């Protein structure tokens, strides 16, 4: 039963998303036509189209010209990404970094008081919002007094470190591996139930004085690819500078 809040197109998108997550629609399966969906939900075609457009932007659905709309394969990637600031990465583009704080608390970690910050990172595009990653950051309070008082919803951690504490992230040491994900992580990142493993990064970020300013644990959406370029002469790797679809 649809109600007036949130917007109807978002409610329909969530219903279809849940049906896919629950296995009612399988990978590669065709969704009902727009006309059928209009009848099912008793809404106008424009509303259905807006719902479908958002799910396509998320990578959950794909449109095949002349054939209809289908559940996407988990292997379908829509974004190239690498370890670093999402906000910095999207500057100068028509896309915007989003953040939603899921947990925020001061803890003791290795005899040091730290802010533990768990956030969902997403990217707002002209076509809709795409989940990017589930991030856990640990920020030392002895370096950043009162940092636990900031609102990190849609705020860049690194911008705050630079502007409020005069600490500039300059180098990160990162470990990448595949990790089995639980049901809650899949729900947050809007993954299909068939998803078993996702790319996981753990890393430490240092400033220009070689001080550790952040420890991170990041689980990336299946829509994200990590692509590196290798310099065989100098013997190092680095992320590609620009994303490709």
Tag the structure with descriptive keywords.
39% strand; alpha+beta; two-stranded antiparallel sheet; single chain; 245 residues; six-stranded antiparallel sheet; 23% helix
Summarize the structure.
The chain is an alpha+beta fold.
Model description:
The chain is an alpha+beta fold and 245 residues long. It contains six helices and twelve strands. The strands form four sheets. The chain has a six-stranded antiparallel sheet. A two-stranded antiparallel sheet has the order 1-2. A two-stranded parallel sheet has the order 3-10. A hairpin with a 4-residue loop joins strand 11 and strand 12 (236-239). The two termini are 37 Å apart. The model has no long low-confidence stretch (mean pLDDT 84).
């Amino acid at each position: 039963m649809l109600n007036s809040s949130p917007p109807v197109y978002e409610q329909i998108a969530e219903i279809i998303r849940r049906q896919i997550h629950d296995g009612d629609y399988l990978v590669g399966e065709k969704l009902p036509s727009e006309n059928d969906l209009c009848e099912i939900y008793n809404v106008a075609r424009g509303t259905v189209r807006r719902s479908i457009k958002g799910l396509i932007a998320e990578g959950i659905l794909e449109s095949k010209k002349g054939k209809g709309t289908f559940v996407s394969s988990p292997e379908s990637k829509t974004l190239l990404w690498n370890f670093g600031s999402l906000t910095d990465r999207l500057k100068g583009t028509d896309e915007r970094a989003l953040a939603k704080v899921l947990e925020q608390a001061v803890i003791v970690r290795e005899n040091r008081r730290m802010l533990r910050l768990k956030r969902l990172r997403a990217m707002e595009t002209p076509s809709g919002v795409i989940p990017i990653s589930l991030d856990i950051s640990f920020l030392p309070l002895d370096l950043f007094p009162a940092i636990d008082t900031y609102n990190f919803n849609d705020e860049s951690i690194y911008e705050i470190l630079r502007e409020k504490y005069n600490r500039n992230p300059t180098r990160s040491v990162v470990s990448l591996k595949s990790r089995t994900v639980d049901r809650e992580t899949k729900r947050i990142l809007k993954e299909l139930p068939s998803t078993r493993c996702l790319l996981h990064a753990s890393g430490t970020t240092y400033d220009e004085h070689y001080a550790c300013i952040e420890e991170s644990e990041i689980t990336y959406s299946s829509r994200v690819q990590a692509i590196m370029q290798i310099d065989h002469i100098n013997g190092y790797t680095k992320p590609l500078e620009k994303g490709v679809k």
